[in-house]
Structures
1.
Amino acid sequence: MSNADLDRTVLVPVDAITVVNPRVRNQKVFDEITANIAELGLKRPITVAARETESVGEPTYELVCGQGRLEAFKTLGQSEIPAIIIDASSEDCLVMSLVENLARRQHRSLDLLRDIRRLKDNGYSEQEIEAKTQLSAKYVHGVIKLLESHEHRLLRAVESGKIPVSVAVDIAGADDVGVQTVLRQAYEKKLLRGGKLLAAKRLVEARQKHGKGQASADRGSRKSLSVESLLKTYENDVEKKKVLLRKAHATRSEMLFLTQSFKTLMADENFVTLLRAEGLATLPKTIADRLTRMEDA
């Protein structure tokens, strides 16, 4: 920690900090961060922005960067954490958090997609996103194109971890012949190996045969039902249940008929003698139990 940072650093209650852009963290990496902080202490303070509260009391803060360090302090049972307090709006905090996460060398593909989308939604141009994230123009353009061209099949594959976002971008920008080159290069770069390579090939074949996929498969894009379609769905469901009930009543009647028939036959001494002669004097336990219950009723 530099002297300049020490001059600007204050202790902030961990419970007063809100994470505006939460991430799902790699547990192994998080455990290493926690162990390192426990042994050596915090090397770099987190960054927060102060917020005014309506009621008189302790101030609250929004986290700009340092979620891993903050969570490590909570895990270690610390009530306060060194922080640099900056003056920034909530929107600026979100954007700075997105940029800080995008600038990392290690990030999840899904996080990368979402962060670029959120920057785009906040009004930043492709050139501004490139400058802030230090990502190449081709890469940023490819990701935005992937989102805007509704490549639902590729997006689902990225979200499920089947293919890296870089490979999805290359597939979206290639023709049918070029896609094979993309897969070969991904294999050579060790981005796709084994089962992931086979899954990527099946994905490409499905995309070529059936298109980009349906928007209804994406979360948040469910097609709303009209009153008429909802009523029709309800009527169809009621009709299915009526058919099911009719089948159940018919089956019950047949079972009662068969059980009564067995009871009548078993009361006939000549029939029972014939069964004994053929070595069939015993009945399956289920049928015998049912006959017993009928006699007891």
Note: The two ends are 86 Å apart (CA to CA).
2.
Amino acid sequence: MSRDDQPLDLGETELSAQDERRVRREHDLDRPGVFDERNAVDERAAERAELWPEEAAVGSADPEAQAREVLRDSDLRTEVPESAPDSFIERRKPDETT
């Protein structure tokens, strides 16, 4: 089984087993090919595979695969905020100030 066939990892969450099954089904997390296609991950990864000078100095065995994983993680955290329980999202109304 290749990495692209493996279910996407939600990480440690506080979701119940039932809620996690629902979330996995609703967001195609057990079908990474469907998740990738819906989010245009392959096309975006190809565009972002060019390394920055700092990254090029260190090198990468597969810049496109690296970009794909970063995009998947970002898309997953956007679609399923519960997948990043240690993250804090602050939402403000436009008229609120800091």
Note: The mean pLDDT is 85.
3.
Amino acid sequence: MPELPEVEALAAFLRENAVGKAVARVDVAAISVLKTFDPPITALGGLAVSSTRRHGKFLDIDCDGVHLAIHLARAGWLRWSDSLPQRPPKPGKGPLALRVHLSDGSGFDLTEAGTRKKLAVYVVREITEVPGIARLGVDPLSDEFTVERLHRLLTDAGRAQIKGVLRDQSTIAGIGNAYSDEVLHAAKLSPFHPASTLTDDEVARLHGVIIGELTSALERAEGLAARDLKDSKRSSMRVHGRTGQPCPVCGDVVREVSFADSSLQYCATCQTSGKILADRRMSKLLK
């Protein structure tokens, strides 16, 4: 799933390649991707792309005051082309969900792999009309994300597991499954640690790691073409997606906990004092 660093990089890429160009037309290949109807998607035709920015994991393309907001979900992606085919795509064929043509012949496709279609596109006059954006929590790279703010958020979360708190978009906006694994590994915290029981030192360490991990990811993504962002993210992961491989810090094996529709990765030596976390379907720790 594209998270804060990748969506920020996509916004920067479009800022460089799309801003100032007019939208020639939009082809919808999967009607289910559209989550709004007023204004219609055709309202974007003829409008110029004036700015692009990120809200959490949402991409916001401002076209003369009409916003094309995109949430790429787990398997969605934006694929840029300097020369798009002019023939309209056939609906329901392949991973293509939506195609945006720009005035110079360039543009981009929104695609989604797999059978679970969650990619979402909104066309709105005010960006806060998008429900997921309206309820976003603090941005971890903003000035509002202080140690004190994080401490309050963790206290308010009670005994909720820290992994889930980091992924909760209404608490902290932009961190998903991958970067929460990386943050917790770097902060030497168990993903199941109750949020409100962190010490002051642990909260301060977690705060610094969140900012450091996301900033480093942004720096790695800077200047990359959209097509290269996925590989850059994947190659930089220390524990996420690396089940069975050695931890780059201590050499212990990276382990996994599987859930119904996702999984997390961690290092027992670095994060849980050597304890092996059981699959949560068993609801206990292996002693």
Note: The helical segments are 4-17, 131-134, 147-156, 162-167, 177-186, 200-221, 229-236, 268-271.
4.
Amino acid sequence: MPGTDDTDRTKQLAITLVDAYVRKDRDLLDSTLADIGDDTDATVSELKVFGSFLSRRVQETGVVWKPADSREAVASTVADMLPPEVEFAVITVWEAYSVGEEEAAERFTNGDPAIYLHMLAAFSAAIGLAVYKPAELISTLRIATGGEE
């Protein structure tokens, strides 16, 4: 099937990006971003799927997770992982995005799609850790995307 290798690669890169935030591993974060390069749209799309999947999972388990919790969690997840100006942009965009202000969020990115990569990967890591242990989260994402455990 054409494109399957690209799709699998994109899914793996998205999982690795979440894993970098879970582990607080800046080197892994940097190398994964380099592997993604300018082709961020597909990875952003995968990360949106992860965020939705993990949000549903949190709801199913009964863990209380409010918008304020997600803002705090994203801020703490990106803390010390990014240059200060990028960290600030990610937090600001997430605050707008998490309350449904997508138009404002888009303006705050200044056209930088990497902000969405960081924001969605940090959110997936944070919300995933609300219901899973670190290794279990990454394994669950691999299984959910049809990858190997």
Note: Residues 109 and 115 are 6 Å apart (CA to CA).
